[in-house]
Amino acid sequence: LNDFETNTANETRFLETIEPFKPNHNDWSPACTHENGFPGYTCGLWELFHIMTVGVMEWNKRSDNKWVAISTEHAADTLRDYVAHFFGCQVCQENFLKAYDSCSFDRCNRLRAIHDDDENDSYPNDWEQLPLWLWEMHNAVNVRLLNEKADREGKTVTAQDEEDVRWPSRQECPGCWRNDGTWDEDIVYKYLRMTYWPNDGLTADYRRQLESFRVFVDDEEVDKTVPLSVTLFPLGVLSFIAIGLYSKRVQLEKSGRHKKCDEDFVGTYSDAA
């Protein structure tokens, strides 16, 4: 990002720029395969989506001009279109699109376009709503899959069963849960940011805050598996660059100089749904 214009001048230069960030292995982490050899693609895809939503928010918070910012509505629509056109699991695709198009979790109000006269304060931390909305969608998928499996096996799902498949757990993030079983979204957001945008000063600050809620268990109980988000973080960097490409295109369109950009660069971006 330090030499953005050069690095995004054309597709060849862009590929050269991202080459050093490629993962150093082609295997899914145990966090997604559950150490049983199952494919980890859908889990990895969700992880990448989470990184992207946090990345959009990070880009916007660092932008001085709101017209360089990416609207949460546009980012979510892009994610939706990717699922619609490229996600190979048809049932997963249909369920996601049904939830998205019906404005589940108040999406149509929480995620909005950016306007000159925008004074809607219903969601004061608008950019943070994007990662929070996706997190809610993901948890809803986990609960739905739990219930579908129970139906097949003739079992009854309890409230505790549903709580057990939601993330983060009470053990992972005690502060994320209120005593009545609802979520504290301010704390959840900090946990998401800490998980999917690691290793900077703000993450360290959030970690110190969350430690007061006993976010981390005793050393002997800590899972030594490297988090998948760390493995995928380089891809998050790529998403961050792709986000910048969009902002660049917006600026070019406003100036009427977008045709050459269209010709020079053409690209796309990509636990179970």
Description:
With 273 residues, the protein is mostly helical. Helices cover 59% and strands 0% of the residues. The chain has helices spanning 4-7, 11-18, 30-33, 41-62, 72-86, 90-101, 107-110, 126-153, 159-165, 185-196, 201-211, 228-255, 259-264. Helix 4 (41-62) packs antiparallel against helix 5 (72-86). The longest helix has 28 residues, at 126-153. The radius of gyration is 20 Å and the shape is globular. Mean pLDDT is 76; it is low at 120-124, 215-228 and 250-273.
Q: Key features?
A:
273 residues; mainly alpha
Protein topology:
Layout: H1 4-7, H2 11-18, H3 30-33, H4 41-62, H5 72-86, H6 90-101, H7 107-110, H8 126-153, H9 159-165, H10 185-196, H11 201-211, H12 228-255, H13 259-264
Distance between the termini: 33 Å
- What integer value in Å does the Rg equal? 20 Å
User: Which structural class do the helices and strands define?
Assistant: mainly alpha
| Number of helices, counting only DSSP H or I runs of 4 residues or more | 13
SS strand fraction: under 5%
Give me the count of strands. 0
Average pLDDT confidence is 76
Order of helices and strands: HHHHHHHHHHHHH
Largest sheet: none
Specify the overall morphology: globular
Low-confidence residue ranges:
120-124, 215-228, 250-273
- How helix-rich are the residues, as a percent range? 55-70%
Write a brief structural summary.
The protein is mostly helical and 273 residues long. Helices cover 59% and strands 0% of the residues.
